[in-house]
Amino acid sequence: HAKRQGKNNYQQYNDNIQTITNNNLKMETLLHRALERDEFLLVYQPQIDIKTNTICGVEALVRWNSKEQGMVSPGEFITIAEETGLIVPIGEWVLKTACLQNKKWQDMGLPPMVISVNISIRQFYHSNFVEKLTTILQESKLEPRYLQLEITESIAMDAEAAVNILRTITHLGVQIAIDDFGKGYSSLNYLKQFPINHLKIDQSFVKDIYSDKGIISTIITLGHNLNLKVIAEGVEKCEQWDLLATSGCDILQGYYISKPLNREDLPAFITTYYYKPSS
Ligand code: C2E
Ligand code: MG
Ligand code: MG
Ligand code: MG
Predict the structure, then answer these.
(1) Which residues neighbour 128 within 8 Å (Cβ) at sequence distance 6 or greater?
(2) What is the ipTM of this complex?
(3) What are the Cα distances from residue 216, in Å, to 131, 228, 239, 240?
(4) CA 179 – CA 48 distance, rounded (Å)
(5) Ligand nearest 47 Cα, by number?
(6) Ion ligand 2 — residues with CB under 5 Å?
(7) Å from CA of 61 to ligand 1 middle
(8) Where in the numbering of this chain does the EAL domain appear (predicted)?
(9) d(C-alpha 77, C-alpha 93), whole Å
(10) Ligand 1, atom 23: nearest CA belongs to which residue?
């Protein structure tokens, strides 16, 4: 009886693996088709300079407007895109679209902003990455200082290679932010070596603002000592804004300021925000 039970469990385990594999294969096919059908789009979340209370940047966030499934958020497809390598063409589309859009806003007469684009580790280490980036900057005619790449601490797994790629990118004039800082594998040694401009405090610390006050002010001090500006994301409440401002944080991003907006809604938000008397 025990043996039969074991066999059943094994069978079930195999079936589960089969389901996961089938789902991944299906997802891969769907993502391929999404690229061909042009089903991806970007939304843009404003970032506020605390001192001047003006918009200094936007983060571009990808969405998949699927014919079958409706609007799909990156949490549901980025991992599979990374595993299958599809993140390379998807990420290239994101980078190109973000640069073109930012240039368009500048040409419309909006105050110049930095557009931040998330870059997956696999995309970052892809052999053509810097070449693609250079071409996109040339073709979009966006000044490189108005583009920022967001990478995570995980690129430090191969610190030597990372430093070389980062140097090439910063030589182009493009800015670099470390996203989700404090969440992953952290080493102060790479921070010192990496040519970067911004640290983004991980949302989890902002969420538990009272218990994590010490961590937040430590990250801000660390960033400032390294000549970096510090961004807090996931700001949902007035109390978080106040505490971050008191702690010396430079830039804020979160639902309290604005949810990510469609490209056609951003200009109106900026115009209203600029003329809103600061409280
Ligand atoms: P992230 O880069 O850390 O982006 C911040 C996420 O937090 C976004 O989720 C954003 O919509 C959400 N968020 C912003 N403000 C708040 C807030 O006040 N409260 C809460 N609870 N959440 C807030 P989203 O758009 O679902 O993206 C999730 C993640 O997917 C991103 O995390 C990023 O790692 C990845 N991602 C998004 N777009 C791209 C992309 O174009 N390429 C790559 N490689 N990854 C992307
Ligand atoms: Mg990000
Ligand atoms: Mg983040
Ligand atoms: Mg992230």
Answers:
(1) none
(2) 0.97
(3) 36, 15, 14, 11
(4) 17
(5) 1
(6) 118, 150, 179
(7) 6
(8) 24-274
(9) 15
(10) 234
Residue ranges lining ligand 1, Cβ < 6 Å:
45, 61-62, 73-75, 78, 87, 91, 94, 118, 120, 150, 179-180, 233-236, 254-255, 260
At residue 110, what is the residue type? L
Tens-binned pLDDT, residue by residue, of the chain (279 aa): 544 455 566 666 666 767 777 777 888 999 999 999 999 999 999 999 999 999 999 999 999 999 888 999 999 999 999 999 999 999 999 999 999 999 999 999 999 999 999 999 999 999 999 999 999 999 999 999 999 999 999 988 888 899 999 999 999 999 999 999 998 876 788 888 899 999 999 999 999 999 999 999 999 999 999 999 999 999 999 999 999 999 999 999 999 999 999 999 999 999 888 655 544
| Distances 69 to 27, 73, 89 between C-alpha atoms, Å | 12, 11, 21
Q: In this structure, which residues have their CB less than 5 angstroms from ion ligand 3?
A: 179-180
